[in-house]
């Protein structure tokens, strides 16, 4: 059986990006499984930071995306809840004020997956192989349910939030102007509107509405008109009147981190290594950060050191420890703060948003972290 330098398990955005990045170094890359068929009515969107966009640019993927699959975010408005008669806190971010071209870019997940798949088909160093193909290094990018990670005995115990995300594409009766909006609501609900170009250019959004499981299942089961009524009541017409432009999708939310992300001859990347709450939109950014870090480590290895050397792979683990741990703790802390039902906690979080809005240096630091700078 012919061997490869690196065996990549998982054909999602993280696994595909890793295969292309390592192939660009001249390494032979094997990918297991068959290419995934396009998902029908895929409503997913990714919020990508500057570092992720740069990586996809290096892989020649970014320039191949259709114009209507990409929407820049120039401003973001975050609102607290106004329950119990208290005024809602408000925090705003502006790319112009931060000296950035954009705060993030919203990308059609299906289009990104399609362009990655096309690039893989034309890469001479990437091949579809069997799962038992010998390799100097095996990269596990199979997602949160990774069977190969479990076979290695790596501890990965998701801590469920008891919440689910509800996603859809929306149409608005006014232009989004590149403004993303987010509401923290009672009970830990987080509603995000991400400016998008489909179905209607300039007046569409990607919706991610995180709420308790019972509430999420209720929203999923509502007739379209009733769902839209709930949605418009929650957003208070801040983005105009919103209507569904797609089917709805839902998935459970949890926090998890593998107790080890590297070992002799193997590494974990993306959701196989860590999952975080989507309130900051950083899930795929963390995964692509893993890709960039591992690619740098392998490209910079000593000529005599093999790809699967345990000490070499520890460099990757050390580089990714701080950013992935910090993002997991930050999103978890925010979710718990806004989920706390007491009036004192509500007052604290609303005052905190207002106070942060008056601190430009701290806002600039937060923006740089979100941009991956």
UniProtKB/TrEMBL annotation:
Q: Out of the domains of life, which is the source?
A: Bacteria
Q: Which Pfam families match?
A: FAD_binding_3 (PF01494)
Looking up InterPro entries in the UniProt record yields: FAD-bd (IPR002938), FAD/NAD-bd_sf (IPR036188), Ubi_Hdrlase_CS (IPR018168), UbiH/COQ6_monooxygenase (IPR051205)
Q: Where is the FAD-binding domain?
A: 4-322
Q: Which GO molecular function entries does the Swiss-Prot or TrEMBL record give?
A: FAD binding
Checking PANTHER family in the record gives:
UBIQUINONE BIOSYNTHESIS MONOOXYGENASE COQ6, MITOCHONDRIAL
Could you identify this protein by its name? 2-octaprenyl-3-methyl-6-methoxy-1,4-benzoquinol hydroxylase
């Amino acid at each position: 059986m012919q061997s490869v330098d690196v065996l990549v398990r998982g054909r999602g955005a993280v696994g595909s990006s890793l295969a292309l990045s390592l192939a660009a170094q001249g390494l032979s890359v094997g990918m297991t499984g068959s290419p995934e068929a396009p998902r029908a009515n895929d409503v997913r969107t990714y919020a990508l930071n500057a570092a992720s966009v740069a990586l996809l640019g290096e892989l020649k993927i970014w320039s191949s995306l259709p114009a209507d699959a990409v929407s820049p975010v120039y401003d973001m408005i975050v609102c607290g809840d106004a329950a119990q008669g208290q005024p809602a806190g408000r925090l705003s971010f502006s790319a112009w004020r931060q000296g950035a071209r954009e705060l993030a870019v919203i990308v059609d997940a299906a289009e990104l997956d399609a362009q990655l798949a096309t690039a893989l088909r034309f890469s001479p160093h990437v091949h579809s192989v069997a799962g038992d193909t010998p390799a100097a290094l095996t990269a596990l990018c199979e997602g949160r349910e990774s069977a190969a990670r479990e076979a290695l005995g790596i501890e990965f115990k998701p801590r469920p939030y008891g919440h689910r995300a509800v996603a859809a594409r929306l149409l608005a009766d006014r232009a989004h102007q590149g403004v993303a909006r987010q509401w923290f609501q009672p009970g830990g609900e987080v509603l995000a509107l991400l400016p998008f170009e489909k179905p209607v250019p300039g007046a569409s959004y990607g919706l991610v509405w995180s709420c308790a499981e019972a509430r999420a299942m209720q929203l999923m089961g509502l007739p379209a008109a009733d769902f839209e009524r709930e949605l418009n009541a929650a957003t208070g017409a801040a983005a105009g009147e919103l209507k569904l432009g797609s089917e709805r999708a839902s998935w459970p939310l949890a926090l998890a981190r593998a107790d080890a992300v590297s070992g002799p001859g193997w590494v974990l990347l993306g959701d196989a290594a860590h999952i975080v709450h989507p309130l900051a939109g950083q899930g795929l950014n963390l995964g692509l950060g893993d890709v960039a870090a591992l690619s740098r480590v392998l490209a910079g290895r000593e000529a005599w050191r093999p790809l699967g050397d345990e000490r070499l792979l520890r460099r990757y683990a050390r580089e990714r420890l701080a950013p992935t741990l910090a993002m997991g703790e930050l999103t978890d802390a925010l979710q718990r703060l806004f989920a706390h039902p007491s009036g004192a906690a509500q007052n604290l979080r609303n005052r905190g948003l207002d106070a942060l809005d008056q601190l430009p240096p701290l806002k600039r630091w937060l923006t740089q972290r979100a941009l991956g700078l």
